[in-house]
Input
Amino acid sequence: MGSLPQVVEECFGLLKLYSDGSISRSPNISFDVPFINDNSILYKDLIFNEKNDLRLRLYKPTSIVNSSTKLPIVFYFHGGGFCFGSRTFPNNHNICVRLVSILQAAVIEPDYRLGPEHRLPAALEDACCALKWLQGQAIMHANVMDTWLGEVDFDRVFVLGYSSGGNLAHHLAVRFGPGSVELAPVRVRGYVLMSPFFGGCERTRSEEERPIDGIWTLEMYDRFWRLSVPTGATQDHPLVNPFGPSGPSLATVDFDPLVVVVGGNEILRDRVENYARKLKEMGKKIEYVELEEEQHGYFTDHPLPAAAQRVIQFIKGFMAEN
Output
């Protein structure tokens, strides 16, 4: 008789990859985070990709402050190291409620496939599909379009991403380019990358000097990459390291306006700062915001921390300018 499969990778006891390639994922994730019940916000779930049974959550205010103005649209891509995360998680739900309330926008949070069951580029394909879904809604005749979307401005769309969602926001900006012509009549006006989850084979100074960041560790980040990159790939894969040796040059790539945010005490701090600095040196329209003393959970901790409030207010100004 052969030996039983052995666990070769494990995350939080919730996700296990075995030596025979099989995977177990526990649905019993314990959250010490209550759902925010805000009567001023409505939400519902819709399917945006039937083939992969993927859903998104659409949020809107119960009443529009300025009834003569349609709502801008904010896409929010959650974090989770490409291995965890869902629109149904209370921390993700709560941040979307806050975004709607403060930004006075319609917020769309799509799910995307996760590793190791679905390795990259699956998540990026799903993110693109979500934007294409919105395009399909925009070009439909009003009587078959979701009625909630009759209240939105398809010409004013903003893409926000936190952690692995920030990584997706970068690749969406590259994929659709300035003006997002391919998505017409949808028009993306800007991208906000909050602590984008990038990696690389060569360690940065903050990775070496700060291998522990609250509950997050460099070893955990490495594990997420091993579970999510294409089989046989390293952290210099272009989807992981935008400036890695195998990635395409970004010098000739045009971007819509970008905002890049990172905590000053994050493991990712130097990698994110290097990303923003290099793009700025290439002449891209980019703003870099560093939150002094903050760690990786500054945006989704509960209750909503002061740092997240500051970031959302900064996003509000960014949206007003673009």
